[in-house]
Amino acid sequence: MKQLYEDLWVSTPELPAAQGEPELMMHGFLLRHLRGNLLISRVESLSDHQAIEDLGGVIRHYLTHWHEAGPGAQLLQSRFNSALYCHNRALGPISPWVEADDTFSQAEVHCGSFHVVPTPGHTPGSTSYLYASPHGKTYLFVGDTIMLTSEGWVTVLVPESNEADLKKSIEFYRALRPDVVLMGTTAGQLAWQEVTMRQWLSLLDEAENSPLDLRQRLLE
C-alpha cells in the first residue's frame, strides 16, 4: 500500500489476467475514517493485506461494481471480519467469490460522512463513493465508470454496459466538486488525479466523447 494523503492509501497495481490488455491495472484504496478503516474497490495482493493489518485492519469493504469481486475479497472478509457492501444489482455476479453483508440501491450516507452514490452505466450496479476528508480534500471513487489512459480520459463499455445510464451518470458527476478522482482501473497511468473544477468538467467532456468500447473484444 502506498500512502497518497494523510488518510488515504492505494494498493499495489494489479495486472489482470485478461489477454490483450497488458496496460490495464486495477487498484484499491484504504480510507482511514473516524469510525474505522474503509476499503474501496479491489485489493488482491497478500502483501497489501498485511499492510492493511498494520494500518489497523478494515471494518467495511465497498465494491464499486461486480468486476472487483475475487479471491482477495473473501480473504479480506475472513481475515478482518469486515462487512462487504455492494449495489443490489451486483449481488448475483459476486456470489461465486464472496458473500455480501449488505446491499444498497439508492444514494445513502454511511458512517455519518461516506456518501454511497449509485452511478449505473459501466455495469447496472456500478457505484461511486464521495468523501470530504477532514484533512481538506474531497475524494471521489469512480470505479471503472471513467478511466485515464495514455490517450486521455474515457468511459468504459463492457457487454453489460448501458450507454443511456452511463450518460446520465456522467451528467450527475458534473454536479460534484471533487478535489481528487480515484479510479479502480487505469491503462498505464496512476490511479488518482487531483483536479480543479474546470479540469473536472473538461475531463468529463473528454471521457463522454471518448468511449473505450471493449464489448466485442470481451465477447470473443
Automatic annotation (TrEMBL):
Transmembrane segments: none annotated. Residues 25-185 form the Metallo-beta-lactamase domain. It comes from the Bacteria. This is Metallo-beta-lactamase domain-containing protein. Coiled coil: none annotated.
